[in-house]
Every structure is written in structure tokens, then in C-alpha cells.
Amino acid sequence: MRLSPFARTLLALAVIAVPALAGVLPEDRADVLWHSYHGGDITIQGPSVLVRKKVGDNLSLSANYYEDMISSASIDVKLSASPYHEKREQWSGGADYLHGKSTYSAGFITSKEPDYKANTSYFAVSQDMFGDLTTLTLGYRRGWDRVFRDIKTPGGVLENDPTFHQRADHRGYSLSLTQILTRNAILGFNYELLTDQGYLANPYRKIRYLSPGQGAGFTLADQVYPNTRTSHSASAQLKYYLPYRAALTGQYRFFRDTWGIRAHTLELDYTHPLSKHLILDGSLRYYRQGAADFYSDLFPRANYQNFMGRDRELAAFHSYTLGAGASYEFAVPGVRALSRNSINVRVDHLMIDYGDFRNALLAGTYGAGNEPLYKLDANIFQVFVSIWF
Amino acid sequence: MRVAPVKLMRAVTAALLLAALAGCAAPTPWVKPYEREHFADPIMSFNRDPVSSTYLQHVFESREGARGATGSVGGGCGCN
């Protein structure tokens, strides 16, 4: 069997990572969360339930159910499709096995919505080293997606278009390192390489090209994406314990891919316990990205280039997210299994300013290509209960 | 100076083996176990509430071109 140099290096790193030195399994806990996103005429809400339980001294099992109930009349939907409601369900299960100072993790995630089915499996090995000051984790994941497109039947019912059935495959390789620097500071580093192959576009969204004298001055056409994508991302987090019991975290991530997108993410988090029971959190996140090479808000003509996309996720934009949360820990008297619980609330406000994505719905007023740039404001709300048992 | 790929691979392998051996004779930890009580405090966890951080990560990944290096895996889309 021939292995590529990359695979050989990964294998060598894995062999180094495996020898016994250790770890600690995550705590047994259950979380029940309700999430709600509202912005840009989209509402997405639903529950998420996560349960983690040790079996014996060395094995920890986890299971998660997550649901998105989507009601969308977004700018993209208004331009080229019809408002819709749908549900996405995601199930996942995982296991962590502790052996000496090594932890082996494996799991499976399956996600289903009427027009998109995704399966992902993952494996990771984690090793504590150097007197447990350093933890190295190597991970691999593989995903298989099936992409469909819904059409409306003459009777008004949505069903899969029998002529459209695509696939997309994904692979991911990750390396994470956490390092205790001092008695008050810890550093985290993550690197991830992701590759995709197959149908990677959104089948509902369209590009537009100039067509003076016709309608609003533009014509819609199907997007044409490359069939492959490879991305690299690297991030670093520094967490510092402040003398009066509070924590400050600074994070930075750099991203680049073969589609020409470059992105920077900066985040600052502050955690402040007000009392033994009440913890407050505040965060500020800044994100900036450049456009993909084949993105344009308005192409000069039909078939202008091989690949053409107008997904706003590929546009140039920057965003700020302001977040705040509160967590109250309590015990239920007389019930031993409920001796540690918490109720948590978190609110985030997301503000996106697009640099080259215009509100094409206003083309009739301003003319194609002269519409105001699109902005998105969204509120993200979470409330959840956690129980340690 | 040009180095043949085979020689480079051998050098890298040797370096990795040396690193592994160095790991066996690990340096003395400069933060002693009894000095790490702050890391046992939940506020010092990089991922205090996984159910919440995974959700928020999904919200960002659905709306941004960037992805990865967050230490979590996900599936599906739900992003129109």
C-alpha cells in the first residue's frame, strides 16, 4: 500500500501521539436548549438536546438531537424562489475512550432535510504530554451528502425534482494543541484542512447578468460552481485568569481556500462570576472576508466565465456580533441527582455589511448595479438548562 | 543547496523520532499540578457549554465563507 507524504506524516504524528501518558473524560451532563434566529426575513428555531454519560471508568458516550425549523422569505428567496417552511433534523452519537493519557474519540452525525441529506463520521486521538501541560489532538472526518432540489407540483405540493440528484463528499484533517503557559494562562491552537468534491452550489440561488431594456435590467441564470474546494484555517486562543476570578479570552482565525476567499475572525470574550451562583458573559466578534474569484453581484453578460456565483456567503463583507449571557447555578434540595444544575440565557446581535452584494429587489427604482448594498441584522437567542449528574 | 526528497523525508522522520524520544524524557513541568487550580474552574474552559457554542458556530458557518479550526464537527446546511 502506497501512502502519500501527507498521509505518512499524519500517521507518524498519530504514532507519536498514541503512547501512554492521559486525559480526563468530560463530565456527565445533560443540556436542553431552545434556539431562535431572526433576521433578514428568516426565522430559524428549534431544540437541541445533548446528553453525555460515562460507562465505567474509561468510556464516555454522548448523543445529540438538534432541530432547525426554518421559515424563510429571505432576499434570495424573494428574488429567485418562493417563501418556504421546512425542518432540518440532526442526530449524532459519539464515544470517547480513555487509555492512560490518550483519549480516542469517534462518532457519527446524520442530518436530514427535504432537499439535503448529510452523513459525517469522525475520529480523533488526543494525548496529554509534558506533565499534562500540553494536549495534542489529531482528527479526521469524512462526509457524504446528497443534494436534491424541491419543485412545486401543479397541485402546489413541494417534492424533489426527479431530474436533480447530486452528491458532495467532504474530508477534513485537523490538529489541535492546548498548552498551559503559566498558572493563569492557557493557549489553544487549531489547524484544519477541509476538501470538498461534488455539487457545492445552492441549487435555488441564481446569478444575474446585465440585460438592458429588459424588465429590471438584469436576467437570472443558474449558478455554476467549481466541483472541488480545499480550505485551510488556523486559529489561536489565549485565555487568561484574572486575579479577582474572571476570565478573558482573545481569539484569532485566518482562513483561505482555493476559491480565493480570505477571511479573518477576531473575538474577545469576558466571563465574570458575580457570585457563587451567577456567571455573566460578554463577547465581541469581528469577521471580515474577501469575495470568491468567481463571485459577482452582476455579471456583464450571459456565460461571462466558466464559474459564476452570487451566493452572498461568497461576497466581500464584514460583520460584528455582540453577545451577552447569564448562567445561574442551583441545586434542587433533597434530590441528590439534581445537586448541580444551571439555567442559561444568551443573546447575540449579528450585523453584516456586504461590500459587493446589492439589494437586487430594488433594481426597478435604482437601476441594475446601482441598488443600495445589502445589510443584515439578526438576533440570536438561546435559553438552556444543564444538569450534571 | 538542493536536498533530495528521500533525504528530506528521512530527516523529517528522524526529527519526529527524536521529538518522540524527547517526549519520553519530558522536561520538568514549569507549572506544578498544585499550581493549576485555576484551570479546574469552569470559567477557564475553552468550551464551557458545548450545546451552546456548537449552535453558535453553526449560525456563523451558514452565513460565512470561512469554516473550520473551531474544534467541532457538524453536518447539513439549513442555510437558505
Brief account:
Helix content of chain A is 6%, strand content 63%. Chain A has three helices and 18 strands.
General description of the model:
The complex is a heterodimer of chains A (389) and B (80). Chain A is mostly beta strands and 389 residues long. Chain A folds into two domains: 1-173, no CATH class; 205-389, no CATH class. Helix content of chain A is 6%, strand content 63%. In chain A, the strands form two sheets. A 16-stranded antiparallel β-barrel of chain A has the order 1-2-3-4-5-6-7-8-9-12-13-14-15-16-17-18. The relative contact order of chain A is 0.11. Residues 73-80 of chain B have low confidence and may be disordered. Chain B has one domain (5-63).
How many domain units of chain B? 1
Biggest sheet layout of chain B: none
What about the largest sheet of chain A?
A: 16 strands, antiparallel, barrel
Terminal Cα separation of chain B, in Å? 53 Å
Biggest interface, chains and residues, is: A-B, 105 and 51 residues
Kindly report the average pLDDT value of chain B: 76
Strand content of chain A: over 45%
**Level of helix content of chain A?**
under 10%
Helix content of chain B: 40-55%
Task: Determine the structural class of chain A based on helices, strands and strand pairing.
Answer: mainly beta
N-to-C SSE string of chain A, H for helix and E for strand: HEEEHEEEEEEEEEEEEEEHE
Low-confidence spans of chain B? 73-80
The fraction of residues assigned to DSSP E strands of chain B is under 5%
Element order, helices and strands of chain B?
HH
Oligomer: heterodimer
**Termini Cα gap of chain A:** 47 Å
Q: What is the gyration radius of chain A calculated from CA atoms?
A: 24 Å
Number of strands of chain A: 18
Total strand segments of chain B: 0
Q: Given the C-alpha coordinates, what overall shape of chain A results?
A: globular
